[in-house]
Design brief:
Largest sheet: 8 strands, mixed
Structural class: alpha/beta
Number of helices: 30
Strand content: 15-25%
Mean pLDDT: 93
Radius of gyration: 30 Å
Oligomer: single chain
Length: 841
């Protein structure tokens, strides 16, 4: 029988004895298993070497104190090892935090690996930095043994943060991970092994793609400045010289990156000198870069949005794989009934960013077909002349809900007296009668929806579609408007506008969506009755299907209206509401990835400042101009100062301190690692500074720390004092009451700065260098346009707060002028202006 030593290193944080006793209990009496437990020292490599020196079994593994040792799992592992040959194995991993989930493609999690003891002892670690010794061991083990043998029947459970967490994985916030770890470790390693085996290459290349994946688009961590980013790209370009092309092309081995990244990696390796080729077989095109296959029908047209307004059908689309086409404007065409038609170039966030820099850009365009020009049968095709000189009709993709259609021959989008359908690589507009719709509805139900695997969803989908048609005449008697804020918290722009419309319009049925378990649900139901709809209820979804306009404060509108991705595709053709953005904060920063026109097919955008209009008119947002309305924000109607001598401290959140992936419409889950973040350290120190407390007592002020809704679950982590109240914004607190009663606001980048400044009350900005913002500044510059001073240091911000309290919290005249310059209106008629604008459509 083969034997195993479990070496376990546990931090001495008050739970050592408890964890030790549990591990001993779980492993006691298991034949062939030896357990060694050690209190963790300051550095982990010396602990590792000490435990390894004492190991005298055939196999060895190393667990952290966050691994849950389960007797049944240990017994399975020993049994598997007894029948296995080799020296290098990998167990499956299930993360317990933030929720139980089996993980795949975890390559760097050291506790998941089991080593032959002799092989492990032969690995040289002298001179390896403490934080890299595990990575060095894995690379050497792969070099000696090949890829670790996956033991699919063996599973470990852990609360450790793994490299699949783009928000919490710790190395991604350390400059060393991007600089020295590549330049002084990975690059010398792969160079020394050159030519390295395929498995070593895969491991090194994975380390490169992981760093990129952690900083794609809105996941950027702002860990590097511009010079450091260029240094990083230079280092990985050198590293790629030691990676074979076929390893680079094995995308499925790594994190989920777009297929186009294979082209980008190879272009980076070869300095742009690439051979692009196409092989045609069985009616499909196979695309290759330097002989490496990307995928079949790689060059395709993705329909982004289909809209019928003002007697015109407008289609927005983008082209994937456009590097196979030499000149897009010359060699890519839209054909209507075989004739080329002009298209308008669009740039609605058509990029992929890495470290904030554009690395990939898609060709985007739109075109229109007026109703009067539609024939009895109008055929739309998309043609590209690729690099070999041959024209191909590009395949069509229908990923976005605003594409209206799905991949079914019975799918349709009806408008006026016409119908749009997809037939192969063509879109076809035909005449449409009630019998045509009935025929397709029956076919979709019988041949499409009945094949849905989720039985519960299947019958819900069929029933909801049936009820849509049965209630269509009822809902058509009046317009239907939908409103929502954060589903777990009301009181934002949507509630204010909803209230105004309920009181002032008899021509519209207005409905407000909120979570049933929200603190606001009972309050709203008592006041508005059946016009308040519980999120994801049957009535809520039915109302959204009949909606004419959806007034949204947040992106991912359909998901927040009860139609998640797995559900919405079955209702695309029925969801015809215009999306009207009434905002949560103001759009004066670079947030095009969330607020561009095609993100939610937004057709109306209500703004409070001319600077928002200026920002949104930039091509990257994709608006034509007519969608942008300068009216003011609805919630500003309630902002009438009622000063109660309170100092409001309310910073925004950061992506790296919250658990991502929570269910739509719910607050973020509690993060037990939050107290270890720089964010917590800085703000907990600030709100408990003795000088601040003394000044508040002296001048008669109360301190309020309003925890951002996204971080509300962390409110209990902050220390309190006799002058301070820590209040989670996701509770039943009234934003209006909080803002109007406060004398001064301290924030960083939060949109509530505009609400507060609207009342011409002083704002201070705390911008510590350790906490960079989510977004880049654009038209709004804090130093020249902000409504108060910008402060970067702790002592300076405390001094400024004390100074303002001593001066009775008066806004300085230069900042009053900035307020008047920034806002288009400073009255309380914002809801009226929005309502009148919409009624004129």
């Amino acid at each position: 029988m083969k034997t195993l030593t479990m070496n376990i290193r546990i931090a001495d944080n008050g739970e050592f004895e408890e964890k030790q006793a549990k591990i001993v209990s779980e492993t006691s009496g298991i034949a062939g298993v030896k357990v060694q437990i050690k209190k963790a020292g300051e550095k982990s490599c010396p602990d590792f070497l000490e435990l390894l020196e004492k190991t005298d079994t055939d196999f060895v593994l190393f667990y952290s104190g966050n691994v849950q040792v389960v007797r049944n799992d240990v017994e399975k592992l020993v049994e598997a090892l007894s029948h296995a040959s080799g020296d290098f194995f990998r167990q499956e991993v299930e993360t317990l935090f933030p929720r139980a989930r089996k993980q795949e493609k975890i390559f760097l999690y050291f506790p998941s690996f089991v080593f032959g003891t002799g092989m492990l002892r032969a690995i040289e670690l002298s001179g390896v930095p403490d934080h890299l010794y595990q990575e060095k061991i894995l690379l050497d083990a792969i070099d000696r043994c090949g890829a670790a043998v996956r033991m699919e029947q063996c599973l470990i459970h852990t609360c450790d943060i793994l490299e699949n967490s783009t928000s919490l994985y710790e190395p991604q916030f350390d400059k060393r991970w991007y600089q020295e770890d590549i330049e002084d470790f990975l690059l010398p390693y792969i160079r020394e092994k050159s030519p390295a085996g395929k498995e070593v290459q895969k491991q090194v290349f994975y380390c490169r793609t992981l760093r990129l994946f952690m900083n794609l688009n809105d996941k950027e961590k702002f860990s590097l400045d511009e010079d450091e980013i260029q240094r990083f790209f230079l280092a990985v370009r050198k590293l790629l010289q030691y990676i074979d092309d076929d390893v680079i092309a094995a995308r499925k081995e790594y994190r989920k990156l777009p297929t186009s990244f294979t082209y980008l990696f190879l272009k980076e390796k070869h300095g742009g000198d690439l051979e692009l080729s196409v092989v045609r077989e069985k009616g499909r095109n196979r695309y290759f870069v330097n002989g490496q296959w990307l995928e079949s029908d790689f060059v395709d047209t993705r329909i982004q949005a289909v809209n019928y307004w003002n007697d015109t059908l407008t289609i927005d689309a983008e082209v994937r794989g456009d590097f196979f086409i030499d000149d897009m404007e010359k060699n890519y065409h839209v054909l209507i009934n075989v004739k080329k038609v002009p298209v308008k170039k669009v740039e609605a966030y058509n990029i992929v960013k890495a470290f904030g820099q554009a690395v990939l850009r898609f060709y985007q365009f739109s075109f229109s077909v007026p109703r009067k020009l539609m024939d009895k049968k109008t055929v739309i095709e998309f043609e590209a002349v690729i690099r070999d000189g041959n024209a191909v009709k590009t395949p069509l993709e229908l990923r976005k809900p605003a594409a209206r259609l799905i991949e079914s021959k019975w799918s349709y989008y009806a408008f006026a007296d016409r119908m749009l359908v997809k037939n192969g690589n063509r879109l076809i507009i035909t005449s449409c009668r009630h019998t045509d719709i009935l025929k397709r509805e029956c076919a979709m139900a019988a041949k499409g929806f009945l094949n849905i695997k989720d039985v519960k969803n299947k019958w819900q989908i069929l029933f909801l579609r049936m009820c849509y048609w049965l209630t269509k005449n009822h809902y058509s008697r009046k317009k239907t408007w939908i409103f929502f804020d954060k589903l777990y918290k009301a009181g934002d722009n949507a509630e204010y506008l909803f209230d105004y419309c309920c009181r002032n319009s008899g021509e519209v049925n207005c409905y407000y969506i909120v979570n049933r378990d929200s603190a606001d649900y009972v309050r709203l139901r008592k006041r508005y009755g059946k016009h308040v709809l519980a999120f994801e209820s049957f009535r809520q979804r039915l109302a959204v299907l009949h909606a004419d306009i959806i007034f949204a404060t947040h992106a991912k509108v359909l998901k927040l209206c009860g139609f998640p991705g797995s559900y919405q595709k079955y209702f695309r053709n029925l969801l015809k509401a215009r999306i009207a953005c009434i905002q949560h904060g103001l759009t004066v920063q670079d947030i095009a990835q969330f607020q561009n026109r095609l993100k939610d097919n937004t057709s109306l955008y209500f703004c409070a400042s001319k600077y928002e209009i200026e920002n949104l008119k930039r091509p990257i947002y994709g608006y034509h101009g007519s969608e942008l309305k300068l009216t003011g924000c609805p919630r500003y109607d309630g902002l009438i100062s009622n000063d109660q001598r309170k100092i409001l401290i309310t910073p925004t959140w950061r992506r790296n301190v919250v658990i991502t992936g929570n269910r739509a419409g719910t607050a973020k889950e509690y993060n037990p690692q939050f107290k270890n973040t720089k964010y917590f350290e800085l703000y907990n120190r600030l709100i408990n500074d003795p000088r601040l407390i003394e000044a508040a007592e002296k001048y008669g002020y109360k301190l309020i720390y309003l925890v951002h809704p996204t971080l509300s679950s962390q409110a209990g982590d902050f220390d309190t004092n006799k002058c301070l109240s820590v209040i989670p914004a996701a509770s039943d607190v009234s934003y209006e009451k909080m803002l109007t009663e406060s004398s001064l606001m301290l924030t960083d980048y939060s949109g509530v700065q505009f609400d507060f400044a609207y009342m011409k009350k002083p704002v201070l900005y705390y911008h510590p260098q350790e906490l960079p913002p989510h977004y880049e500044e654009t038209v709004y510059q804090y130093d020249t346009m902000g409504f108060g001073p910008v402060i970067t240091g702790h002592d300076a911000v405390v001094n400024e707060l004390c100074s303002y309290m001593a001066d009775n919290c008066r806004m300085k005249e230069k900042y009053v002028k900035r307020v008047e310059e920034f806002f288009a209106y400073t009255d309380h008629d914002n809801c009226r202006r929005i309502y009148e604008t919409v009624m004129q459509l």
